TrEMBL record:
Transmembrane segments: 30-53, 65-87, 107-125, 145-167, 208-231, 243-265, 277-295
GO cellular component, one term: plasma membrane
Primary localization: membrane
Record's keyword terms, sorted: Cell membrane, G-protein coupled receptor, Membrane, Olfaction, Receptor, Sensory transduction, Transducer, Transmembrane, Transmembrane helix
Highest taxon above the source species: Eukaryota
PANTHER family: OLFACTORY RECEPTOR
Protein's recorded name: Olfactory receptor 10G2
Ranges where the G-protein coupled receptors family 1 profile domain occurs: 45-293
Pfam families: 7tm_4
Single GO MF annotation: olfactory receptor activity
Organism of provenance: Jaculus jaculus
Similarity remark: Belongs to the G-protein coupled receptor 1 family.
Length: 318
């Protein structure tokens, strides 16, 4: 750890050492390969969804699939912020991260993560309108309004990420500099602060709690109304199609929110499970999203078939 050579009160950390995930030393090459492959597959899977939505004329004008494309874009960036740092931790010199790099990683993680929370809420609202207000849906959720809502989610996410980064790094860090985690996140970094962190922990708990809980409650309310409306559909095929479309979104929301709540709403926790749970929603969820949506969504599967057949830009009149 390098420090400024002034007085001890002015001594500051210039870099952090990420201790990473606990693992047997002899498994390092295997773990490096596993996380490297996960990263490549995540990028390719989400890129395929993004290109499919962009190219297919039946998808890129519909709000539901515009939101899906934005989700894939977010997953690609979220994975890029976290996963390369994980597999670099399995190399001899990959544990050191500059102070500025730690600030940037924390900001972008919370920026992209909170934007995803808002986006999941918009997706639930879109499905609510489509199923519960089908006749008014083209007016209530059109392309222009969808774009405005997505832009609002990005702005709100950026503000949230900025607040968390500023609050975390306004505190002095004078050593030690060993972060007991696999990336720079608020709970792990705050433990190293050379000042009282009670206010930070309270604000983090309230801020993230409000964002996550309010989004989750809105999603649950939307789907409670959706389920009620679906049960009124007279045909079994119609009910199955509606449940299939909404089921993919609910699956994604569950695998994202449950680990987040486990991590951030347990203030001061040092459980060894935290790392494993965090790996799930930062690494596995972005990988699963393309699979969940392609396997459970008939429109996306059909569009993928047209794209792979080289017919993505051809309207079907068959």
């Amino acid at each position: 750890m390098r420090r400024n050579k002034n007085t001890s009160l002015d001594t500051v950390v210039t870099e952090f050492i990420l201790l990473g995930l606990a693992h047997p030393r002899n498994l390092r090459p295997l773990l490096f390969l596993v996380f490297f492959l996960i990263y490549i597959l995540t990028q390719l899977g989400n890129l395929l969804i993004l290109l499919t939505v962009w190219v297919d004329p039946k998808l890129h004008t519909r709000p539901m699939y515009i939101l899906l494309g934005v989700l894939s874009f977010l997953d690609m960036w979220l994975s890029s912020v976290i996963v390369p740092r994980i597999f670099l931790n399995f190399t001899p010199s990959g544990k050191v991260i500059p102070f500025g790099g730690c600030v940037a990683q924390l900001y972008f993680f919370h920026f992209l993560g909170s934007t995803q929370c808002f986006l999941y809420t918009l997706m639930a609202y879109d499905r609510y309108l489509a199923i519960c207000q089908p006749l008014r849906y083209p007016v209530l959720m059109n392309g222009r309004l969808c774009t405005i809502l997505v832009a609002g989610a990005w702005v709100a996410g950026s503000i949230h990420g900025s607040i968390q980064a500023i609050l975390t790094f306004r505190l002095p860090y004078c050593g030690p500099n060993r972060v007991d985690y696999f990336f720079c996140d608020i709970p792990a970094v705050l433990r190293l602060a050379c000042a009282d962190r009670t206010v930070n922990e309270l604000v983090t708990f309230v801020d993230i709690g409000i964002v996550a809980t309010s989004c989750f409650v809105l999603i649950l309310l939307s789907y409670a109304n959706i389920v009620h409306a679906i049960l009124k559909i007279s045909t079994a095929d119609g009910r199955h199609r509606a449940f299939s479309t909404c089921g993919s979104h609910l699956t994604v929301v569950t695998v994202y929110y449950v680990p987040c709540i486990f991590i951030y709403l347990r203030a001061g926790s040092k459980s060894p499970l935290d790392g494993a749970v965090a790996v799930f929603y930062t690494v596995v969820t972005p990988l699963l999203n393309p699979l969940i949506y392609t396997l459970r969504n008939q429109d996306v599967k059909s569009a993928l078939k047209r794209l792979t057949a080289g017919q993505g830009n051809v309207n079907e009149n068959k």
